Structures are given as C-alpha cells and as structure tokens.
Amino acid sequence: MIYSTKVGAREWYIRDTVADVMNDSRTDGDLHDDLADGGSNTDGFTVKDNGQVRLKVVPESTMRDYSKPGLDQSTAKGQGFMSSSKEWDMKGLEMTARIKCTDFDTDDSRFIMKGPTGSHKSNTDDCSGSSYGVRFFLAPSGSDSGTTEWFKEQWHVHYQTRDNSQKSTGLGSIHNKWVGCKYIIYLVKDSSGAFNHVKMEAWMNSNNDGITWKKVNETTDTGGWNDGNGALDCGADRADEIMTWDAPSMIWRWDGPTILFKDLSMREIDPSKLASDVDSGENQETPSTGTISRDYVFRWNLISFPIDECSLGQDVTTFTKVYDVTDDGTESNLHKERYRVGVLVNSNSSKLVGKKPRRITLRLSAGGSPPAGDITCVIRDGNTDEVVSTFTWTGGTLNATALTGTKTNYVFQNLTSNYVLKTGDRINVEYSGNTVDVINEVNVFRSTDDPFDGANTCAVKFDAGGIPPTTYSSPDIFRDYAWIIEEAAGAGT
C-alpha cells in the first residue's frame, strides 16, 4: 500500500480461485465470461484475448447493477454522490493490480484502471459513466512502450485524453514480466480551501517485490480538461466539470492482449498518511559529523518476533483465513431485544473446529442513532457461555455512537490468544447499550445463502427469555454472518 487505510474503510481483495471470483457478489463485468479455467491468485488468473474486458467492484453487492443514464451531474456534484452516500468515497481511493502481459495486439495495447464511476455498458450513452483513469501501455516496443497516460470520461462514452500526460515510467517495457500497478485518486483543496479539485497518481512496482513502488505519473484536475460540450450534455454546471462526487464502481479493464493478473485490491484511504511499508526509493543523505541515528521500519506484516533464547516473543507471522463470508445486503440487529449475535460452531464437522482465531473482521453499520455503549467481540465457551477470549478493535474502543449508516469493516484482534474452538463455541459481537427501543440499533451484516459449510457452522442470536434477553434462540442454520475470521501462522505455540 502507498497510503494508509482510513479508519472504518471499505476494502475488497480478489478471491483465491476462478470459482470464487465468479461467485463474488461484489464484482461484475464481462471478465466473468473471459476468465480462463484453472487460474489462482497464487499463480495468476488468465484473461483471454477478447477485446475490451472489464471487472468492476462495488462497496456493497446491492450496487452491482447500478445504472442511471439520465444522471444529472449538477445534482451529483451538489449532494456529493450519484445515488447513495454508501458509494466509494472520493476523499481517497487506492486501487492495485499485479499483471503480466504475455501477448499484445497493437503498439497501444493497454491495461486500464479507472473510477469511481457508474455504468459502462457497451454502445450505451450513460451520464453515470463519468470517470477518471490511467492507461498502462503493454507493448514491448514502439513509442507507447513503457508509458502511462491520464484520461477523463465526462460521461460514457466520451473520452478525453489529458494533453501532454503520456509519460515514460523510466522502467522500460513491462511486457512479459510481473509488475505491480496502482491507481490512486483523491480530493485536494482549491484556492478557497474547499476540496474541489481531483488529484490522481500512478505507481509501479517493477521488481515484483511488493515493496519498492515508484510514482510514475500524476495529474490534478483543476478545470479546463474537456472537449466540446463535455459535461453540459449531462446537466453539469460547466463543460469541464471536475468530478468530485462518489460513485459505486471501480474498474479494471484489459484491451486486447492476453494477460495474467493477481492481487487485485481496492481500499478507501487517508491520503494524508503514507503507509509504513513503502520504499519510495529516495535515500537520505548521511551526515559527515556528529552522532548518526536512524529509525528502521520492518517492511513485512510481522505481528511479533519469534520465540528467542529467553523464551520471549511468539511464533506469529502471517494470517490465514479460516472463515470468509460475503454479505448479501441483509443484517441482524442489536437493540433492546437482542444483545448478541454470533457464529456458532454447530457440530463436530464444522470447519472451525480446532481453529485458533486471532483476528476477526466484522461488517457493521448504524440503524438510526444507537445509544452510547461499547461494541465488543468475544469467544464464549459452548458449555458455560463464559468469555474465553476477548478481541480488541484496532482503533481502540468501539462505541456504537461512532458507527454511521455506511456499512464498514471493523477489525478486532487478540494476537496472543491460543484458544482452540470446539463444538458449541460462539464467536460473538455484543452490544447492550440500547435498553429502550428496537429502532436505533447496530446492524450486523450477514448472508442468507448459507455459504460456509451448511448447518455445521451457522448464525446464532442472544434474543430469547424475555426483555432484556437472557439466553440464545435456536441456531439459524440457514444464515452465516458476513465476517472474516483468521488464524495466524505459528498459532500452535
């Protein structure tokens, strides 16, 4: 990552297999028809040579089919979004891909990253298709080889390449080798101090180490970037409208060549904070006199140091997902009649039996205005219902008043927990701050498709025995909560 993930960010990461990619409810596009069989996120997925191929990702599955050809861009500008405040946040977005082009059609064959945007259906004019984007040129030789350039799509289909924006990356041809590509877009202030301008950055990682990133191009839309009527065709206030509004889709596009890809991701970021694991390639000058000191940043996601000779530390390095469910837009609610919901290890055949969770990602939002009260994440013993492991939100203490109406991922961790899950145990999110009504609530997102392992692992609710509740109702074997549960490598120590 180049910039830090913002607090409460929505994120997306590509799944591990072709089947998983096809079944991801937050993606769409003709890539689903042009993805070759047999690929993986380890060795790379293959896009077959079939013209313009797109993959789009949305923050919520309900936005996947969004289209509004008659969008009034003046209205979008005024309200700050196309149709919902839950769209991708233009304050800061970072989009990543790792690609390897093994063939090409023409000298200007390119890989494109763009957004946020709306609908881009072929042969359809659509004012919601407004977008910024960057082209990475793929041919091994020719004037375009090893370059990038910026474009603006004031509406779909109405492209305007930025004058004099095609620049050499300084990295040479990227043909037939793995390279990392990033497209970053965020709002910046104009002379009045308002966030009315849009800045874009393109970064590349040419040695495929995932660390040494180089900024290869950047531009800022301050006005004057238009062609003909431009945005006036979509009701904007000016032909060269600066597109500052949120939108539901981010798009990767392959034009023509056969290409491998992996490690696609999308994050909402804080562009004022650089991530600590980035090597910009800039060296500091060493002083010739005086005491020399230097701060070192470890460029790996180490949780803790291994056990040493003094038996200090712990053998923990990377995380492995043991449970990963995508929501379908539905949720359970925590209020005066329900204090807990959780993932139940419902049988000995559950895939969670024997696992040692150390990190849990919950998807939450506010319904109305939930009263103050801590939201906690714990494991409760299946026999005694006692708390056997407590997880801490990475942002400190999560109070219900901090939630918004936007569905957001919240990460809870316990990096020293060695608790082993057994049948009957419950991994819960808990909130008992509302003792008044069932309107102002904490929403906990789920899937009603029972996607994990059938009835062996399922949803459970603490909402029986009266008001306030005193016990759990029967297991909900047809639903799973849309969480991510992870072990850590070396968690057996």
Secondary structure tally: strands? 28
| Largest sheet entry | 12 strands, antiparallel
Which percent range describes the beta-strand content?
Answer: 35-45%
Uncertain spans, ≥5 residues at pLDDT below 50?
A: 279-316
| Gyration radius, in Å | 24 Å
Shape: globular
What would you call the structural class?
mainly beta
Rounded mean pLDDT score: 86
DSSP helix count? 3
What is the first-to-last residue Cα distance? Answer: 30 Å
Helix content bin: under 10%
Helices, strands, pairings?
Layout: E1 3-5, E2 11-13, H1 18-22, E3 27-28, H2 31-34, E4 45-47, E5 52-57, H3 73-79, E6 93-101, E7 110-117, E8 131-137, E9 147-155, E10 158-161, E11 167-168, E12 179-188, E13 197-205, E14 214-221, E15 249-255, E16 259-274, E17 319-324, E18 330-334, E19 340-345, E20 359-367, E21 376-380, E22 387-393, E23 408-413, E24 426-430, E25 441-447, E26 457-462, E27 480-481, E28 484-488
Antiparallel strand pairs: 1-16, 2-16, 3-5, 4-16, 5-15, 6-12, 6-16, 7-8, 7-15, 8-9, 9-10, 9-11, 12-13, 13-14, 17-28, 18-25, 19-24, 19-26, 20-23, 20-25, 20-28, 21-22, 21-24, 22-23, 25-27
